[in-house]
Amino acid sequence: MTFRTLKKWLSSAVTTLLFIILIFMVFVVISSKISGGEPSIFGYQFKTVLSGSMEPTFQTGSIIAVKSVKNASKLKKGDVITYKIDKTTTVTHRIYEVKGADSQTKYITKGDNNDSHDSEPVLPGNVEAVYTGFTVPFIGYFMHYAQSQEGTALLIVLPGILLIIYSVITIWKAFKEIDGRKKKEEASSTDA
């Protein structure tokens, strides 16, 4: 592989990578804005872990995938659930104990890293989703930032600016190379 071939391959790889990052950022931001929270893909919602209450199951700053639950009264001890504690706050904890059955079911939940169970039982109607077992460490910090106004602007604009700068540099180098060839041709034609 010659240097020129390697250079072209690297140039294409960088352009493709910047374009993929731009598309991914646009998807994350738009998906977050449409859902009013975390992005969703194929029925899975991605939640950001903002506390250490479930360590070591998942670390603070991770993202976890949860799937909506259709019949929340059929959950069992050991399931990790995401539930609402008020209009704006959700929590993801493990079911520590199931009390009652069917329409009378209540879940006693506990964070894996907490010493005691949560003070309020969770009603099936407050359960939004069940943890799927999929976790990606540290990306949650990025996702949480992407949901802020500054993050939204930065994550859409920055990859676009980088792609434009890279394109300008590539075009400038191409013009410089063409100009160099012309000068060589002129020099060789005057020598002849």
Characterization of the model:
It is a single chain. This protein has 192 residues and is α+β, with helices and mostly antiparallel strands. 44% of the residues lie in helices and 22% in strands. Strands 1-2-3-7-4-5-6 form a 7-stranded antiparallel β-sheet. Helix 1 packs antiparallel against helix 3. The model has no long low-confidence stretch (mean pLDDT 81).
Topology at a glance:
Blueprint: H1 3-35, E1 40-41, E2 44-48, E3 63-68, E4 80-84, E5 90-99, E6 106-110, E7 127-136, H2 139-146, H3 149-191
Antiparallel strand pairs: 1-2, 2-3, 3-7, 4-5, 4-7, 5-6
Helix pairs in contact: 1-3
Features of the shown structure:
single chain; 192 residues; alpha+beta; 7-stranded antiparallel sheet; rod-shaped
Number of strands: 7
Determine Rg (CA atoms, Å).
26 Å
Q: Biggest sheet: strands side by side, in what order?
A: 1-2-3-7-4-5-6
| Weakly predicted, low-confidence segments | none
**Class computed from helices, strands and strand pairing:** alpha+beta
Main sheet attributes: strand count, strand direction, barrel closure: 7 strands, antiparallel
Listing every helix as H and every strand as E from the N terminus to the C terminus, the arrangement reads: HEEEEEEEHH
- In whole angstroms, the N-to-C terminal distance is 34 Å
Count the helices. How many?
3
What's the overall average pLDDT, rounded?
A: 81
Question: Any idea what the shape is?
Answer: rod-shaped
Strand content: 15-25%
Q: Helical percent range?
A: 40-55%
